[in-house]
Amino acid sequence: MLAEGPPPVHQQLQWIVTMIGSLFVLVMATRAFSMWVKQEYGAAATMLAGALVISVAVFSPGLVTGLADKALATLTGEDTPAPKPAPRPHPGPSDSDIPWTPLLAGLGSLAVVALLGGLAVALRAQHSRRTAERQRRADLETRHDTVRDAYADFTTDILAVLDRPALSDITVPQTERLILALDAARDARSTPDTTNYRACVIELEIAWKAADQHARKAGTTHLAPHEQRAIQQARALLATALDNAGNTHERHAAYQKAIKIINNIIEIPQEAATALETATRYALSKK
Fold first, then answer.
1. Secondary structure letter of residue 94 according to DSSP
2. Which DSSP string do the residues of 169-189 spell out, in sequence order?
3. Which of 35, 194, 197, 247 could form a disulfide with 44 if both were Cys (CB 3.0 to 4.6 A apart)?
4. What angle do CA 49, 55, 61 make, to 5 degrees?
5. Predicted TM-score of the model (pTM)
6. Which of 277, 258, 276, 256 shows the shortest CA–CA distance to 266?
7. Which tens digits make up the pLDDT trace of 81-136?
């Protein structure tokens, strides 16, 4: 038996070209995966299409040449007969044998890249959902804080309380609804349930708008005439108490009288009383 010699040179060259093509396809597939992660879907699809074309050209050159011959025959109008296969005296590798190892390696690489791309897309979508949820939560907290701060500003402004006494009177239905909405939003904020928190914030915004508009429209008209006159007197006394140009003794007396009048008519929020006392003490200390 004769020993088998080394494979022909053209088979060696075909093997080298196949391996280089496989490597090139793998690089292109990896590049396409990177583009897909960056959400460059058009470029990724183009890169994958190029990798597929190169794979066909490298792993099935006979298919490419056959298509080229058919295209040439169609353009020239010639009917080129199909070549007869050459006789094969004995079994063995030939030029038409398909290199299954690099072909399967290339297809496997594409499958792995596709799997990793799908996983990356899923993880990116999950990250986007979480980011959007955090943003929605932050927006709700901002809206909650806006109403809470607006009501806090009212409760610390004695003059605003005198102008809109209904907004500090919990016997008024609109104000009662506002207080309940403030409590509900505060409790919902401490839970991870964004859906319930959103509903509470929406209710709070509606309740605040209704209560504030009602208080502004009503003013002091719901008070008895003598109470309305007393409110006006109290406002004048407070102006005297906070006037730096006035006598210290007179300003202090005006402050005490204003507080007594107001307490006989409406209930002053503790925040407003504290803020007024602080402001008056500071004004008196500057004299």
1. -
2. -TTSHHHHHHHHHHHHHHHHH
3. 35
4. 125
5. 0.54
6. 258
7. 555 555 555 554 454 555 555 555 556 666 666 666 666 666 777 777 778 888 99
